[in-house]
Amino acid sequence: MSCIKQDARPDRGLPGTDRSFNAFEGMQPRRPAATPVEARNGRRVKESAVPPQGVYLPNNNVLTPAMRSPEYVQMSNAAAITLGIMPGKMHRCGCTRCLNLLLTYPEGCRANCAYCGLARHREAERDYADRNFIRVDWPAVPMQQIVDIVARDGDQTPFHRMCISMITHPRSDADTVAVLKAWTAKIDPAAIPVSILSNPTTMERADVQRLKDLGADIFTVALDAATPELFDRTRGKGVQSPHKWQKYWEVLLDARDVFGPQKFGAHIIVGMGETEYEVLSLVQQLVDLGGHSHLFCFFPEQGSLMDHLPATPRDQWRRVQLARYLIDYAGVRVEQMRFDGEGRVEDYGLPLAELEDIVGQGIAFRTSGCPGKFRDDVSACDRPYGDSPPSNIASFPFQPDQKDLRKIRRQLRIPVVQG
Ligand code: SF4
């Protein structure tokens, strides 16, 4: 099988002239506007000091209560429905298998990542607990209430995993420890393993070790951007945000040492301006280190600094999803694949029959993340419709059926894969 090594950034098409991928030049975030002093640092919420009463459902028409971790955490709509604290149904999903918890403070996240609905620049527009994040609202719930429900449900719990998502805040490290302790005080982490979605900017190796010692199972780093250049543009100096690519890698390598093989990984958003070759080279690098990659399809989050930009074209996304699955779970290496002059996958490095078999299984197109209890390559973290609307699913939060697979094959637009 031929292979083409690509050392230099290949020529890239501009959006509009070639919509089969999101080119670097066309994915520039807006500049963040200045926030009025009276809206900074959660001042509105702190000064009104409305005491929270039980579960808070995001509502931009009422005064947001002053809620703080570790007493309060936010959770996705899907988790709140599955936990039974919020009514609702999800399109084609009975429940979610991962209880995603997000630390919360009136001051919110102090970073300004361009693609993120939680970013600091939204202070003037929307209080932290009311902001949309990965396309959905995040109700705030007392941590003790969550622990009591999951402990009460015991073996009957629908959850295969719990995840604590840190944000950039001075209290984030200590409160992640407090939330983890509150969980393990009543719930056996061997029964429901815990993942940490870390914030490397505020962490040292000792923090990573502490979380492992307290019973965390998997440690992930949200690199999000696939290259240092994109990282700086979307999470660093480019948007007045504090994150640094080098620091994220330091903590990622600490996680490899502390948590060990298969127990660490990185989140990567596909379609923010990197080439397919670049993102798949990163996927390979993570596998070579002993870890995994968890992919997200770029979606222009409402209110974010990238909300004017196009979502990742489905053919680009499907190619990367499929190639990443082959690298992570089928032993194919990026060097066996062939890329065109724009860095797009042309050949997956597998005979047609084997490729068709993997496409037909459909698992490659499911949401990727930390594993649940079904099988290693099926994520507990299914994030229903976190990166697309249900009408044009990017990451399938369930097993794609034959109709879905016909659509996926059309989206892949590769002659070798027949429906
Ligand atoms: S650090 Fe995380 S939560 Fe904060 S703005 Fe960046 S992506 Fe969003």
Number of helices: 11
- End-to-end Cα distance, whole Å, is 24 Å
Q: How is the largest sheet built, in terms of strand order?
A: 3-1-2-4-5-6-7-8
Strand % is 5-15%
Q: Unreliable runs, pLDDT <50, ≥5 residues? A: 1-18
Computed CA radius of gyration, to the nearest angstrom: 21 Å
Structural class: alpha/beta
Describe the structure.
The chain is of the alpha/beta class. The chain has eleven helices and ten strands. The chain has an eight-stranded mixed beta sheet with strand order 3-1-2-4-5-6-7-8. Strands 9-10 form a two-stranded antiparallel ribbon. Helix 5 (205-213) runs parallel beside helix 7 (245-259), helix 8 runs parallel beside helix 9 and helix 9 (314-329) crosses helix 11. Iron/sulfur cluster binds next to loops. Iron/sulfur cluster binds at residues 109, 111, 113, 116, 118-119, 167-168.
Element layout with pairings:
Layout: H1 43-48, E1 72-75, H2 77-83, E2 98-103, E3 140-142, H3 143-153, E4 161-165, H4 172-184, E5 194-198, H5 205-213, E6 218-224, H6 228-235, H7 245-259, E7 264-270, H8 276-289, E8 292-297, H9 314-329, E9 338-339, E10 345-347, H10 352-361, H11 402-412
Parallel strand pairs: 2-4, 4-5, 5-6, 6-7, 7-8
Antiparallel strand pairs: 1-2, 1-3, 9-10
The structure holds iron/sulfur cluster.
Iron/sulfur cluster binds at residues 109, 111, 113, 116, 118-119, 167-168.
